[in-house]
């Protein structure tokens, strides 16, 4: 039997979608969301309808009938810590991502959009390799400050997929190899994958700045800024995620753009 699977990957500046028939890619498309469009919405949750409509519009315009789908899979968002792999989307997951996500992030819309489209198509929705996969070794949790243990939040989906692809290319078993994988996107993260498990990470607030994130900044100066009374908590978070990096310096998240 041939299985048609729609994959949906919401990121900070785009929603990537792909249709697979078994393991064969039928199409892959990046649906870009310009900065001026994203800025119309107060928070990620308010982007849900817009992103869903963009996905459905593309499918309709290109003659793809969602009623022929067998499953829909979305990028796993900021759920409580989970192991790698697939999870079926249910009401509890959707409610948690809507109202109490661990952190506000575009990936939180993955399960929600997948679930909405799957409901329309009468099929099941899943998430795969959530950004909150936590398989870290205990020693990797030590930060240098006992009050602030290191936690696992990174670009798991892409990092594991690329590691699996490399293993296949060289005719090796993914679970027999060790990888260091760098993800370069709206945020930057680095992951250590050992025998199939993501045992250590460099999160997007621990390393270099990126198109929209500040990366690691001088701690003392950051503390001073937080206590300056010039910015509230929400604004400070946006300075780190969303309004940091290239956007803070050049007012763009597109590294291809001439300024």
The ordered H/E elements are EEEHHEEHHEHEEEHHH
Judged by helices, strands and strand pairing, the structural class is alpha+beta
Report the uncertain regions: none
**For the terminal residues, how far apart are their CA atoms?**
51 Å
What would you call the shape? Answer: globular
Strand fraction: 15-25%
Radius of gyration: 19 Å
Which CATH top level class of the largest domain fits? Answer: Alpha Beta
CATH topology descriptor of the largest domain? Nucleotidyltransferase, domain 5
- The oligomerization state is single chain
Q: In CATH terms, what is the architecture of the largest domain?
A: 2-Layer Sandwich
Number of separate strands: 9
Average pLDDT over all residues: 94
Task: Describe the structure in your own words.
The protein folds into 2 domains: 4-128, Nucleotidyltransferase, domain 5, CATH 3.30.420.40; 138-250, Nucleotidyltransferase, domain 5, CATH 3.30.420.40. 30% of the residues lie in helices and 22% in strands. It has 8 helices and 9 strands. The chain has a 6-stranded mixed β-sheet, covered by helices on one side. A 3-stranded antiparallel β-sheet has the order 7-8-9, with helices on one face. A hairpin with a 2-residue loop joins strand 8 and strand 9. The termini are far apart.
Topology:
Elements lengths: L3 E7 L3 E8 L2 E9 L2 H4 L9 H14 L9 E5 L10 E3 L2 H9 L8 H14 L2 E5 L27 H14 L8 E7 L3 E7 L2 E6 L16 H8 L6 H8 L4 H6 L9
Parallel strand pairs: 1-4, 4-6
Antiparallel strand pairs: 1-2, 2-3, 5-6, 7-8, 8-9
Helix pairs in contact: 2-4, 3-4
């Amino acid at each position: 039997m041939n299985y048609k699977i729609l994959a949906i990957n919401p990121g900070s500046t785009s929603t990537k979608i792909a249709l697979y028939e078994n393991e064969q890619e039928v199409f892959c498309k990046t649906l870009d969301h310009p900065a001026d469009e994203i800025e119309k919405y107060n928070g990620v949750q308010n982007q849900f309808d817009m992103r869903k409509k963009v996905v459905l519009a593309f499918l309709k315009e290109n003659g793809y009938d969602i009623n022929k789908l067998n499953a829909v899979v979305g990028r796993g968002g900021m759920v409580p810590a989970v192991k790698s792999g697939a999870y079926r989307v249910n009401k509890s997951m959707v409610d948690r991502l809507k109202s109490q996500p661990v952190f506000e992030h575009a990936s939180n819309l993955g399960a929600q959009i997948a679930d909405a489209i799957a409901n329309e198509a009468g099929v099941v929705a899943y998430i795969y390799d959530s950004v909150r996969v936590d398989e870290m070794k205990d020693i990797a949790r030590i930060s240098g400050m006992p009050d602030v243990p290191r936690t696992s939040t990174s670009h798991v989906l892409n990092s594991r997929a690329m590691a699996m692809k490399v293993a296949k290319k060289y005719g090796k078993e993914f679970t027999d190899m060790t990888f260091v994988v760098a993800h370069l996107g709206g945020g930057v993260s680095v992951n250590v994958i050992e025998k199939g498990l993501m045992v250590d990470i460099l999160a997007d607030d621990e390393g270099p700045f990126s198109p929209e994130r500040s990366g690691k900044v001088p701690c003392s100066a950051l503390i001073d800024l937080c206590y300056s009374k010039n910015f509230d908590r929400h604004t400070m978070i946006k300075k780190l995620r969303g309004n940091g990096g290239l956007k803070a310096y050049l007012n763009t998240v597109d590294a291809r753009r001439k300024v």
